[in-house]
Specification:
By secondary structure, the protein is an all-alpha fold. Helix content is 63%, strand content 0%. The chain has 13 helices and no strands. The longest helix is centred in the N-terminal third of the chain and has 22 residues, at 37-58.
Length: 293
């Protein structure tokens, strides 16, 4: 009754039941899992709490990643947020929070893979920045997380969330798409507006390769999370301004899948191309190998 496999079906269910995406996603999970509404809600509440905690811990200026390539960047950006800056407070807060989660992940801290560990900063960054700066309730933020889950489910069913299969467009691109839809929901947007934002955000990251230096989820992954959070906010604002995606969301998802299959293996999480093949990266990789041996 509430099951959907693509964006068009999701919109039709919203229209039939006169409910927002968040409620349709929740009802679909009840049907599919057999769990009660309270159990599912509590689980999502727990995920949001983990996201918030990973941000707080990740803002520590002394945090350092396992590979030593990142650490303290979230703190630096967060400090800039309250001073003179170019992007505005909510944007810099979302970016600093996205960096914080990725630094927690790279230091073996606890995070929520939403949808993957390599793209784990984008959605929390948007959700918590919106919650704080727009005075949105915790309950509404949980609902926004259900909106993001609906977008992620559709991408997973019709394309991929794996960097090894589809490049970073499948990880950071998907996360940004999920976050853009969630931001629109938090901004009072309708279901169609959520999908327009999701489509525009994913279009903006088509072809993004996955090229982790030394095979570590640190460089360029962390900063890509920051850039992707900015992408999500911009696309949410465009959608809320009434700008529509010329290419429907479902078609963008299919395009992403086809583009992912066309990306050469060296540019899909193998650490053999892209930034991973830059001279500085290769020099670092040799040091890592020597240390391990």
């Amino acid at each position: 009754m509430y099951q959907y496999n693509n964006g068009q079906q999701l919109l039709e269910l919203c229209k039939i039941h006169q409910q927002p995406i968040a409620e349709i996603a929740l009802q679909a999970e009840i049907e599919e899992s057999g769990r009660s509404r309270d159990v599912i809600w509590t689980s999502m509440d727990s995920q949001l709490q983990i996201m918030e905690l990973s941000i707080r811990k990740g803002l520590n200026p002394d945090i350092r990643s396992v590979g030593g390539l990142i650490g303290g960047n979230a703190y630096r950006m967060h400090q800039r947020m309250d001073g003179e800056n170019l992007g505005g407070k909510i944007l810099l807060k979302a970016v600093s929070y996205a960096l914080a989660v990725t630094e927690m992940n790279a230091s073996m801290g606890k995070i929520v893979a939403a949808p993957t560990a390599g793209a784990s900063g984008i959605l929390p960054g948007i959700l918590l920045a919106m919650l704080e700066e727009k005075s949105i309730s915790w309950e509404e933020t949980i609902k926004a997380l259900f909106v993001a889950a609906a977008i992620g489910k559709i991408i997973a069913l019709n394309a991929t969330l794996s960097g090894a299969e589809g490049g970073c467009q499948a990880e950071c691109g998907s996360a940004a798409s999920m976050a853009a839809a969630a931001a629109v929901y938090m901004g009072g947007g309708e279901p169609q507006t959520c999908l327009d934002a999701a489509a525009m955000s994913l279009k903006g990251q088509l072809g993004l390769i996955c090229d982790p230096v030394a095979g570590l989820v640190e460089v360029p992954c962390s900063k890509r999370n920051a850039v992707s959070a900015a992408n999500a906010l911009v696309c949410a604002d465009m959608a809320l301004a009434g700008i529509r995606s010329f290419i429907p969301f479902d078609e963008v998802v299919e395009v992403m899948y086809q583009v992912g299959k066309a990306i050469p293996p060296d540019l899909r999480e193998t650490a053999r191309g892209g930034c991973a093949a830059a001279p500085t990266a290769l020099k670092y990789s040799r040091i890592v190998m020597e240390t391990e041996n």
